[in-house]
Amino acid sequence: MFRREVKSISDLLNKYLRAEGFETPLLQKRVIDSWEKVVGRTVASYTGEKFIKNQTLFVKIVNPALRQDLSMMRSQIVKRLNAEVGAMVIADLRIY
What we know:
This protein is α+β, with helices and mostly antiparallel strands. The chain is 56% helix and 18% strand.
C-alpha cells in the first residue's frame, strides 16, 4: 500500500500564489481594503487615494486636522493594518 499526502486546498492555494508571485500583491490589496475597517467609517470618508510603494502605505487625507492626528498615530495604524491582514505587509504609513 502507498500513503497519500493529504493537503488542504488552502495550503495548496497559498503555495501556488507564492510560487507565481501573486501573494504580495494580494496582501497589499487586502491592506488597502481593510483601511476603512481599521480607521473607521468617519475617517475613511475623508480619505482620498491609497497606494503602497516599497512597503509604505500612502494615504491622502483631505482634512488637515485629521491628517495631523493620523500622522501621530502612524505606528498604531500600521500594526492594526498588518494584524488585520495577518502578515507584515507594510512597514510605514505616509499621510499627505
